[in-house]
Amino acid sequence: MADPIGAYSRIRGRRNALFTRWARRSFGAIGPGSVIELPVLVHGAANVTIGSGVHLGSDSHLHAPRDGARIEIGDGCRISGHCVLSAERSVRLGRRVLLARNVYIADHAHGRDDPDLPVMDQELTDIAPVWIGDGAWLGQNVVVLPGVSIGPGAVVGANSVVRDDVPAGAVAVGAPARVVRRPA
User: Fold this and answer.
1) pLDDT attached to residue 5
2) pLDDT, position 106
3) What pTM does this model have?
4) I need a surface site. Which of 5, 61, 107, 136 has the fewest CB within 10 A?
5) Is a pLDDT exceeding 80 seen at residue 9?
6) What is the pLDDT of residue 18?
7) CA 173, CA 162: separation in Å to the nearest integer?
8) Cβ neighbours of residue 114 under 8 Å, at least 6 residues apart?
9) CATH number of the domain located at residue range(s) 4-181 in this protein
10) Is 110 one of the annotated active-site residues of the chain?
């Protein structure tokens, strides 16, 4: 008996591989073995570099539209669907970083000083680079705010809002996130 789900998966896999190959000319770089799963929204593709063996899940958004903005995704990263990486200056993921679904990482905030002006029309504020270290894991629905560094091997629990640095190997949870376990 035919396996229609398996056939559909193979077709999707081929489509994503063809798109990734075609997209290489637009991105800063896409390493071998990386796959961008459609659909995906990208602003400023030339400012985005993707390492080797990366999986970028569907419905993700990469936003680095300005000159000098950088998004760097290290080798072997796994980014589940519906993730947002937004850079005015720099968002960097080390090697083999794991992002669960709906993770939001931005190196900036929206201004809100003028109550008579819609937030979307105000200047961006708090612009500061974000760095996620090698082998870190961010759970579902995690939000990482500007200027945060998450150390290598750190784990951030689901639904956490990270506004302060998380040390290497630590576990942080909550909104705002706080370290609940440090490496032995």
Assistant:
1) 65
2) 98
3) 0.92
4) 5
5) no
6) 87
7) 8
8) 122
9) 2.160.10.10
10) yes
User: pLDDT, tens digit, for every residue of 12-40?
Assistant: 788 888 888 888 889 999 999 999 999 99
Residue 148's nearest CA partner among 124, 130, 175, 133 is 130
| Terminal-residue alpha carbon distance, the chain | 53
Residue 46 in 3-state DSSP?
Answer: helix
The mean pLDDT of the chain is 94
For the segment 116-124, the average pLDDT, to the nearest whole number, is 93
Determine the Cα–Cα distance for residues 169 and 134; give it in Å rounded to an integer.
10
User: Please, which residues have CB within 8 angstroms of residue 59's CB and are 6 or more apart in sequence?
Assistant: 39, 40, 81, 82
- Say what the alpha-carbon torsion angle 133, 24, 42, 122 is, to the nearest 10 degrees: 80
- Catalytic pick among 43, 55, 61, 110: 110
> In terms of Cα–Cα distance, which of 56, 48, 47 is closest to 16?
56
Enumerate residues 6+ apart whose C-beta is below 8 A from 38: 15, 16, 19, 58
The number of beta carbons lying within 10 Å of the beta carbon of residue 147 is 17
Domain ranges within the chain, ordered by starting residue: 4-181
